[in-house]
Specification:
alpha+beta; five-stranded antiparallel sheet; 39% helix; oxidoreductase; FAD-bd_PCMH-like_sf
Length: 595
């Protein structure tokens, strides 16, 4: 459609700028022009009729020459055999070929079209795909479920996806280990091993990620005693372009193993992983509402005494939602608690606010629209924000409604860990998440709370229409050097803070405006906070700047934190033609001989 519009615009410009001169050449106002009406009339009665006839023949010759040249050009153009005698039509556009795949991330913020999208079903098929691509030097970027906000796995040149390699291969109940194909989704894995009484040690917010993808970008759950998910990997099988299929572990090539656990898909296609699991257990989730003053008093205790803990901050308010999760006590059992409000009562004020806003905006609900009584809180929040997503006062109202929702939702919930540890993140969104060190469990630095206070001050000072929540989580460290939470000190802990802006509309102009506002919001935190707190973005959320100076600054900054030279050296050895790379990886970790 864009091509069509561009062509139409150029043709309109051609008609506007060139047809008038052509017409004026045919009937010029200049009396000296041989084809002017006055001259033509006088020539008919003039004795020099022969010279006029010769001039006429000359111009007819020019016209014939132009027509002949155009015909020769048309019939000489190298059309395919089956198209040689087809009539040319200016406004006819070829449809997209059937083999062209459109692949976008979940939020719709990054999208590519490619003709090369492999989905092998076996290890042998995957090895053949990688070998062929290596020989032809064609790219096949590994891509998972497409949930990364920055589309880190996307490539126009080609991709390989392991969705059909999704089996649980082996379960060792005694050692609590499982070996799986890397294309298996988290939920499928959890469902597949629960009959053995096992589950994963921790979970990210969403269950739809493929295991290979969630490990390669250094994804994490929450709990200051629990490391990111890559630390759970015991061994892995990589299909590499230059060295074929290799198996690596803590005992077998440990340097490469630790580097590849969070390898961003650039060192090989992760085909299989062996994961250290834990016993499946029920958890008690406790949701309560607090404020920053109380949080400061209890922060060390909350981090050290809870297996899982996270804070949700509501911008333009002092509300802090505290969510803790712990195993059900074998002696006491689950807590007995009767909530003050039912789930319907807790959300009713949000429905009322939506109706009120509709009336003020004079918006008539669509007949086929979903009944608001059937919507979850996050769905209602999207609808509310969609009415005026960049108006600060409107966003503050929505945030206040969210704070009230959480107050009315205080209480307990009991369930299996894979049911409890998930989190409804809401609809499509832009998100930036940073990770930074915050001391140890025994001596927390409180930098995590200072960071939040600085973020909230930036929001209020610059009147950013920042929706809720600002999410804060913690993890222990990992030995994977490419992880933002890597450390050589076993007792170090890290905080992860996510800021967000939702994309609750399909209107392209409005989404563009939200995107611009989000990057302004992100830029404020980047310039004023990242260096101050040694904060680095999550690999699945880092965005590559378009400005050359900003890109050079980012590259230099990454070198200070991560072993970029060692990573690039491994890339050269395992993937010399960088068929597993994409533009994002090439810009973050440039090499002198990029393809």
């Amino acid at each position: 459609m864009l091509r069509a519009l561009t062509l139409r615009r150029s043709l309109q410009s051609l008609h506007h700028n060139h047809l008038k001169p052509l017409i004026s050449t045919a009937i010029p106002k200049n009396p000296l022009n041989p084809l002017s009406p006055a001259r033509a009339c006088s020539s008919l009665s003039s004795p020099s009729a022969s010279s006029s006839a010769s001039e006429l023949r000359k111009y007819l010759g020019y016209t014939a020459l132009v027509l002949f040249s155009a015909a020769a050009t048309y019939y000489s153009f190298p059309f395919p055999e089956n198209a040689k005698h087809k009539k040319a039509q200016i406004f006819r556009y070829a449809p997209l070929p059937e083999e062209l795949h459109t692949v976008s991330n979940w939020s719709g913020t990054h999208e590519v079209q490619t003709r090369v999208f492999h989905q092998p079903e076996t290890l042998e098929e995957l090895e053949k795909v990688v070998k062929d691509a290596h020989e032809k030097k064609t790219r096949i970027r590994p891509v998972g479920s497409g949930l990364s906000p920055n589309g880190i796995g996307l490539s126009r040149a080609g991709m390989v996806n392991l969705a059909l390699m999704d089996k649980v291969l082996e379960v060792d109940k005694e050692k609590k280990r499982v070996r799986v194909q890397a294309g298996i989704r988290v939920q499928e894995l959890v469902d597949g091993i629960k009959e053995h009484g096992l589950t994963l040690q921790n979970f990210a917010s969403i269950r739809e990620q493929q295991i290979g993808g969630i490990l390669q970008v250094g994804a994490h759950g929450t709990g200051a005693k629990l490391p990111p998910m890559d630390e759970q990997v015991i061994s892995m099988k990589l299909v590499t372009p230059a060295k074929g299929t290799i198996e690596i572990s803590k005992e077998k090539d440990p340097e490469l193993f630790y580097l590849a656990r969070c390898g961003l898909g650039g060192l090989g296609v992760v085909a299989e992983v062996t994961i250290q699991c834990v016993e499946r257990q029920e958890l008690v989730e406790h949701t309560s509402v607090s404020n920053m003053e109380e949080i400061k008093k209890n922060h060390k205790k909350l981090l050290s005494e809870n297996k899982h803990v996270k804070y949700l901050y509501i911008p333009y308010s002092d509300t802090v939602v505290v969510v803790t999760c712990n195993p059900v006590s074998k002696w006491k059992g689950p807590p007995k608690f009767k909530p003050k409000y039912g789930s319907d009562e807790a959300i009713q004020h949000v429905r009322d606010l939506y109706k009120e806003c509709l009336q003020k905006c004079s918006v008539v609900p669509v007949k086929n629209d979903v009944d608001i009584n059937e919507l979850s809180f996050t769905e209602l929040r999207d609808k509310l924000l969609a009415l005026d997503p960049l108006d600060k006062d409107h966003v503050v109202k929505v945030n206040q409604a969210e704070a009230e929702f959480w107050r009315k939702s205080e209480g307990y919930r009991v369930g299996w860990s894979d049911e409890i540890l998930g989190f409804d993140c809401g609809g499509q969104q832009w998100v930036s998440e940073t990770c930074f060190p915050v001391g140890t469990l025994s001596k927390p630095s409180l930098k995590d709370l200072e960071y939040i206070e600085d973020v909230k001050q930036l929001i209020e000072k610059n009147e950013v229409p920042a929706p809720a929540p600002i999410e804060q989580r913690w993890t222990a460290c990992t030995k994977s050097p490419m992880s933002p939470a890597s450390s050589t000190k076993d007792d170090d802990i890290f905080s992860w803070v996510g800021i967000i802006m939702y994309l609750p509309t399909t209107d392209a102009r409005q989404r563009k405006e939200i995107t611009e506002e989000f990057f302004h919001y992100r830029r404020l935190t980047q310039v004023q906070l990242w260096d101050k707190y040694s904060a680095y973005e999550h690999w699945a959320k880092i965005e590559v700047p378009k400005d050359k100076e900003e890109l050079a600054s980012l590259q230099a900054r990454l070198r200070k934190r991560f072993p970029v030279d060692a990573y690039n050296k491994a890339r050269k050895e395992l993937d010399p033609s960088r068929i597993l790379s994409n533009n994002k990886l090439e810009k973050l970790f440039p090499l002198s001989d990029t393809i």
